[in-house]
UniProtKB/TrEMBL annotation:
This is Large conductance mechanosensitive channel. The lineage of its organism: Bacteria, Bacillati, Actinomycetota, Actinomycetes, Kitasatosporales. It is found in: Membrane. It is a multi-pass membrane protein. One of its GO terms (cellular component) is membrane. It comes from Streptantibioticus cattleyicolor (strain ATCC 35852 / DSM 46488 / JCM 4925 / NBRC 14057 / NRRL 8057) (Streptomyces cattleya). Keywords: Membrane, Transmembrane, Transmembrane helix.
Length: 150
């Protein structure tokens, strides 16, 4: 039972989704700070508003609604960078190491792809000899269409 739970948690897609969610939450905090501390005061200034810290007062002194709070925004950017470094070094690096010991490659460079000349599928691995979609034989050095390199 515990082995099944461990296998479920260690599937690549579960960890990738979890990291994506964590990144989205941290990025959401960054965006919220930008809107609360930079955009909202600009809008409030258009309506009518004292210096409260690192930033500029756009209206009446002491009016928080019209204060362009750069200090708070910078602090949120720093939080975001630190948070993502922690996620990377505490979750991604150990998970990558664990999966490499199992013989799996995760969070690596994308595989170079090309386009199938027969069906125009754009995601055929560059070294493939046959298209996975239409089954057409591919020339040894098929480099037609969009070739993405890592």
């Amino acid at each position: 039972m515990l082995k099944g739970f461990k296998n479920f948690l260690m599937r690549g897609d579960v960890v990738v989704v979890a990291i994506g969610l964590i990144t989205a939450i941290a990025f959401s905090t960054l965006i919220k700070s930008f809107t609360d501390d930079v955009i909202n005061p600009l809008i409030a200034r258009a309506q009518g508003g004292r210096s409260l810290g690192l930033g500029w007062q756009l209206g009446r002194p002491g009016n928080r609604a019209t204060y362009l709070d750069i200090g708070s925004f910078v602090s949120t950017v720093i939080y975001f960078v630190i948070f993502m470094a922690v996620v990377y070094f505490v979750i991604v690096v150990p998970y990558r190491h664990y999966q490499q010991r199992r013989g799996l490659q995760v969070f690596g460079a994308p595989v170079a792809v090309t386009t199938c000349p027969a069906c125009l599928s754009p995601d055929i691995p560059r070294g493939a000899t046959r298209c996975r979609y239409c089954g057409a034989d591919l020339p040894p050095h098929h480099a037609t269409g969009n070739a993405a390199t890592p």
